[in-house]
């Protein structure tokens, strides 16, 4: 099925460990995004990429890095995980143009840092 | 600064009754407005959007939303609620010149059988 694929779905890390969350979309969308979702906080933008080769910080970028590997893939890296990064992470993509102005979301990665 | 407010953390409605989930926004420029729904352990699913034109927008699963420019609101409505409508609902806004969408904090909708 066309859409946004995130891996892994679940992950438990120890404090200080590193990991990369993977995201890929097959809709030929230019823009890709990483959000985190925490209870009572809604979705907060971590980083986004408006096009291949570009990335920009969102609302809560500290402790994260991203790579827009190609048009399809946008990865999120935690270099040294902290308990405050326990969250559900969503990747999203968006096409261009008025009729394609909404997001398509992946199913999420539930990350626990102990 | 752009912002979206969902003033209710939770809304309870009896099955068969009409429902409203409130959303207000603050942006400079013309807004694009969205509603998304999230079922347990799932990603967000698009419900409907307002870009321009008719202030009443119809979307998926019988939902609709009314854009009110003077009140800067975009409330989600449904004439007759179903138990299966129970979920977390997010309002979101995008300004045309900006490539980002800002989400509200979400409203949990409980439909009581």
Report the sheet-strand fraction of chain B.
over 45%
Mind telling me the C-alpha Rg of chain A?
13 Å
* pLDDT < 50 stretches of chain B: none
Give the end-to-end Cα distance of chain A, rounded to a whole number of Å. Answer: 34 Å
Fraction of residues in helix of chain A? under 10%
- Indicate the structural class of chain B: mainly beta
What letter string, H or E per element, gives the SSE order of chain A? EEEEEEEEEEE
Indicate the multimeric state.
heterodimer
- Our Rg estimate of chain B from Cα atoms comes to 13 Å
* Helix/sheet category of chain A: mainly beta
Q: What is the rounded distance between the termini of chain B?
A: 41 Å
Shape of chain A: globular
Number of helices of chain A: 0
Low-confidence stretches of chain A: none
Number of helices of chain B: 0
- The best one-word shape of chain B is globular
Q: What is the mean predicted local confidence, pLDDT of chain B?
A: 91
Measured as a percent range, the helix fraction of chain B is: under 10%
């Amino acid at each position: 099925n066309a859409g946004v694929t995130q891996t892994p779905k679940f992950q438990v890390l120890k404090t200080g460990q590193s990991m990369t969350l993977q995201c890929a979309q097959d809709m030929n969308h230019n823009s890709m995004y990483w959000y985190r979702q925490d209870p009572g906080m809604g979705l907060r933008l971590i980083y986004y990429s408006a096009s291949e080769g570009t990335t920009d910080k969102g609302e809560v970028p500290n402790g994260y890095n991203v790579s827009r590997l190609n048009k399809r893939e946008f990865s999120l890296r935690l270099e040294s995980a902290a308990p405050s990064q326990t969250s559900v992470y969503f990747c999203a993509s968006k096409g261009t143009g008025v009729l394609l102005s909404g997001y398509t979301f992946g199913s999420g990665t539930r990350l626990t840092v102990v | 600064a752009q912002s979206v407010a969902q003033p209710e953390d939770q809304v309870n409605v009896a099955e068969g009754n009409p429902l409203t989930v409130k959303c207000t926004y603050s942006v400079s420029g013309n807004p694009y407005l969205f509603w998304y729904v999230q079922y347990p352990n799932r990603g967000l699913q698009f419900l409907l959007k307002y870009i321009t034109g008719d202030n009443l927008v119809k979307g998926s699963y019988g939902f609709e939303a009314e854009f009110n420019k003077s009140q800067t609101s975009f409330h989600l409505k449904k004439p007759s609620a179903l138990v299966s409508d129970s979920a977390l609902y997010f309002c979101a806004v995008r300004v045309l010149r900006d490539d980002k969408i800002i989400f509200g904090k979400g409203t949990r909708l409980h439909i009581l059988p």
